[in-house]
Amino acid sequence: MKIIAARVIVCSPGRNFVTLKIETDQGLTGIGDATLNGRELAVASYLTDHVIPCLIGRDAHQIEDIWQYLYKGAYWRRGPVTMTAIAAVDTALWDLKAKAANMPLYQLLGGRSRSRVMVYAHANGKDIGHTVDEVLRQRELGYTAIRAQSGVPGLDKVYGVAHHDGKGNKLYEPADAALPSEHDWSSEKYLHHTPKLFEAVRNAVGPDVHLLHDVHHRLTPIEAARLGKALEPFSLFWIEDATPAENQEAFKLIRQHTTTPLAVGEIFNSIWDCKDLIQNQLIDYIRATVVHSGGITHLRRIADFAAMYQVRTGCHGATDNSPVCMGAALHFDTWVPNFGIQEHMPHSALTDEVFPHDYRFDQGFMHCGEMPGHGVEIDETLAAKHPYKPAYLPVNRLQHDGTLWNW
Questions:
Q1: Is 216 a catalytic residue?
Q2: Using CA of residue 44, residue 50, residue 56, residue 59, what is the dihedral sign?
Q3: For a Cys staple, 375 with which of 41, 108, 288, 369, CB 3.0–4.6 Å?
Q4: What was the pLDDT predicted at 158?
Q5: Do 109-371 and 3-104 have the same topology in CATH?
Q6: Each residue of 281-290: pLDDT tens digit?
């Protein structure tokens, strides 16, 4: 099954997505997500100018060899642009192989390890009362795991808290703008406020709902340790990205002070980013995802390595990953033995129209489909009606002196 053509499709049905489509001499096509939020065109160029010419004429069944060729052959290894481009190729090739076998992707990976995939919802509020209402609303939809984020008194904008357009529609970052928007931050105000949030949420939902929280890399290690300890009475499922993980040893300090489970890795690109965290058992969940970690081939290696240390998966699944990534992730989740949880943010109706798929949500769980491949396609005619719009993720500055901080 030779690759005869490949192209990159960039579109913006509500937000920007980059998709790679590979065609073969057997008439089959496969697609992969290549979206890198805020740096989309860098991956599009990498694929178009450097990767696609190397794919033409190759046997699409040789997934491992092509992966190694793109990883080792570039000489410049890893990094978000390279690994996202490799992920797009890899996902498209797995899609093709499963279609050629006339099987859903999870069957090629080894079959089902579970009947359904537990996902967590996002509950965001401008204040504690609003967040509690959102948590209860998500519970009514059937979610058994819910991430709670709240506005912080004295801060204008807080990560995870969506703004509205006045018509009931939530506006998620990135907003269309010439330059990144700037947010303010105070760790002191946040640390004072967050335990109060989870006291209120836990009192409202009782002990049987899994509660999660995203710190979004904003605390120092000792501040993260303080937060984890303060949240212990509320039995969180995890706190996510408690501190930047470039220095993996920083998590040792957090572990010394709290038993609150730790999750990290949505911005990781390879097994080397999480090697020390996993083998030293400094985290409980690895959040690397298909689109940014070299595709299914490499994510399997990360998951297998994590399983040796009883670390479970918790793949990133925000709406800046396209439905192509979600479809592939759900097949991966259905197979992977050491599954923990899957993030779930529903895409807009328009995005779902551009990317028709056969996965579905039902009462707090997701189900991958049974179509051959990963079950997601792209309507190129509709995609062309929604061209790319320049957009950036925001930046953060400390409130008291304007120092650039982690967003």
A1: yes
A2: negative
A3: 369
A4: 87
A5: no
A6: 999 999 999 9
Confirm whether 374 is a catalytic residue.
Answer: no
- Catalytically annotated residue among 143, 159, 172, 285: 159
Per-residue pLDDT reduced to its tens digit, 3-18: 999 999 999 999 999 9
Contact (CB, 8 A) for 131 and 125: yes
Within 10 angstroms of residue 59's Cβ, the number of other Cβ atoms is 13
In 3D space, the residue among 311, 316, 367, 365 whose CA is nearest the CA of residue 338 turns out to be 311
User: Any idea which architecture 109-371 has in CATH?
Assistant: Alpha-Beta Barrel (3.20)
The number of CA neighbours under 13 Å toward the Cβ of 67 is 23
CA distance 310 to 312: 6
Q: Record the tokens describing residue 12, joined without a space.
A: 């913006």
Residues 6 or more apart in contact with residue 290 via CB below 8 angstroms: 33, 87, 91, 296, 299, 315, 325, 328, 329, 332
Domain ranges in the chain are: 3-104, 109-371
pLDDT tens column, 317-362: 999 999 999 999 999 999 999 999 999 999 999 999 999 999 999 9
Nearest to 94 by CA among 84, 104, 85, 81: 104
- 3-class SS shares of the chain: helix, strand, coil, % to 5: 35, 20, 40
pTM score: 0.96
Q: Which is the catalytic residue, given 193, 213, 216, 347?
A: 216
- The domain made up of 3-104 has a fold known as Enolase-like; domain 1 (3.30.390)
**Short-list 27, 80, 26, 18, CA closest to 52:** 18
